[in-house]
Amino acid sequence: MKNLTILGSTGSIGVSTLEIVSTHPDRFSVVAMTAGNNLELFVRQIRQFRPRIAVVASTADIPRLKELCSGLDVTVLGGIEGLIAAATADETEMVVAAIVGAAGLVPTAAAIRAGKDIALANKETLVTAGHLFMNLVAEFGVRLFPVDSEHSAIFQSIEGHRCKDIGKIILTASGGPFLNTPAAQLSKVTVQDALNHPNWNMGKKITIDSATMMNKGLEVIEARWLFNTPVDRIQVHIHPQSIVHSMVEYIDGCVIAQLGTPDMKAPIAYALAYPDRITTGVKPLDLTSISGLTFFNPDHEKFRCLKLAYRAIISGESMPAVMNAANEIAVAEFLEGRIGFTRIAETIERTMNAHSAHNLHSIEEVLKADLWGRESAREICKEMVH
Ligand code: NAD
Ligand code: MG
C-alpha cells in the first residue's frame, strides 16, 4: 500500500489521480488532500477517499470546510501551513504535486525536505527553481517522477539507458487550437476559442499555455532540469495527433518514442506505481484507425512565447522565474477578458526586457523574483487596458 498526499485534488490532474486511486484501492491510500476552491467537489472527494488531513488554500474557507466535513474523522487545515502539513504528513510516502503555478513551490519543496517521493505535475516548480529543486532531490535522496505526458514519455524512453548517451530530446506539441489560425487573426481570438483545445482536457491555465505554446516552452525548461540536458539539445516538433508523446534520440542515431491515446491517467499511473505498470482504463491505441502521424517545426514568430521560454532558460538565473510569473499574470488577465490574446506574449516580453537576471540561492529568493515579475507584469497589463 502506498500512502499519498494529493496537492490540488480538485484540479484536472487531481481528479485523474483519484480515478487511478479508486481503480486500485489495494495499492494506494490517500493521507492528505488539498484544494484551492470548489469546496463541493472537495467534500465529495473527502467522503470517498477519507484522508486524515484536508487542506483548503485560503484560511478564510476553514470554517465552511469544517462545517461541510462535520461528522467526518478529518483534520481541516488551511493556508500555506496547511499545505506544508499535508505535504509532510508522517505516513505519506509520495506527494502528487498537482497545484497549478508557482503556488506549488513551497509545499513541494517541503515534501522533498521531509523525504517524500514526488509525482510532479506542477511544471512551474522546475521552471522557476529547477537547479534548487534538483539539488534538493539529490540532497534528500527522494525520487522525482514526471507526470507531464511528454516528460513521462522521455522518462519511459530513457529507462535502461544513460542520460549521457542522449543525442537530443524531441518534445512533441499538439500545436493547440490556433495551429492553423493565421498569425494576423490571433489578436482577435476569444477566451472561448483559446480554451477549446483539440486533444487534451485540462485546467484553464495550462489550456491557455497550450494555445500560446508557452506550455511547450515551460516543458523545454522542465526537460532541461529533469534529464540534465542542455536546451540546445531539446527540440520541439508539432505533432497534431498527440499520439507520440515525445522521443529521445541517442548518439548512435536510434530514436525511442512512447505512444498512446492522449489521456493523463497513463502518465499519472506510471508515476504512482513505478516500476510497475497498472491498469488505467485508457483507451488502447489503434494505429490502423489513424490516418497518419505528422511532425513539423513550430513557427517561432507566430508562437512568440516558445521563443521567449528558450530566451529565458538561456539567460538563466532569475529570468525563467520572472517569465513564469509574467505568464501567470498575463494568462489570468486574458481569462478575465482584460487583455487580448497576443498581449500575453507582449506582457511577458516586456517584463523580461525590464528584468536584469540575477542568481537565486534559495526558494525565498525565487519567490522574490516571482513577486517582482508579477508586479511588473500587472503594471504592464494596466497600461494596455487604459
Ligand atoms: P487545475 O487548475 O485544473 O487544478 C489546479 C489545482 O490546484 C486545483 O485543485 C486548485 O484548487 C489548486 N490550486 C490552484 N491555485 C492554488 C493555490 N494558489 N494554492 C493552493 N491550491 C491551488 O490545473 P491542472 O490542469 O490540474 O494542472 C495542475 C498542474 O499540472 C499545472 O502545473 C499544469 O501545468 C500541470 N499539468 C497539467 C496537465 C493536465 O492535463 N491538466 C498536464 C500536464 C501538466
Ligand atoms: Mg505536457
Structure characterization notes:
The protein is built from 15 helices and eleven strands. It is α/β, with parallel strands linked by helices and 386 residues long. It has a domain at 2-146: NAD(P)-binding Rossmann-like Domain (Rossmann fold, 3-Layer(aba) Sandwich), CATH 3.40.50. The strands form two sheets. The protein has a seven-stranded parallel beta sheet, with helices on both faces. Helix 5 (105-113) packs parallel to helix 6 (123-140), helix 10 (214-226) runs parallel beside helix 12 (304-315) and helix 13 (319-335) runs antiparallel to helix 14. The chain is globular and about 55 Å long. The protein starts with a strand and ends with a helix. It binds nicotinamide-adenine-dinucleotide (NAD) and magnesium ion. The site of nicotinamide-adenine-dinucleotide has 26 residues, from helix 1, helix 6 and helix 9. The site of magnesium ion has 4 residues, from helix 7.
Q: Into which percent range does the helicity of residues fall?
A: 40-55%
The H-level CATH homologous superfamily of the domain at 2-146, spelled out, is NAD(P)-binding Rossmann-like Domain
The description of the largest β-sheet is: 7 strands, parallel
Q: Ranges with pLDDT <50 over ≥5 residues?
A: none
How large, in whole angstroms, is the Cα Rg? 20 Å
CATH-defined topology of the domain at 2-146:
Rossmann fold
CATH classification class of the domain at 2-146? Alpha Beta
Portion of residues in beta strands equals: 15-25%
Query: Any ligands, ions or cofactors bound here, and which?
Result: nicotinamide-adenine-dinucleotide, magnesium ion
CATH architecture of the domain at 2-146: 3-Layer(aba) Sandwich
Structural class: alpha/beta
Strand tally, please? Answer: 11
Q: Please state the overall shape, judged from the principal axes of the Cα atoms.
A: globular
> End-to-end distance, in Å?
56 Å
Order of helices and strands: EHEHEHEHEHEHEHEHHHEEEHHHHH
Distinct helical segment count: 15
Strands ordered across the widest β-sheet: 4-3-2-1-5-6-7
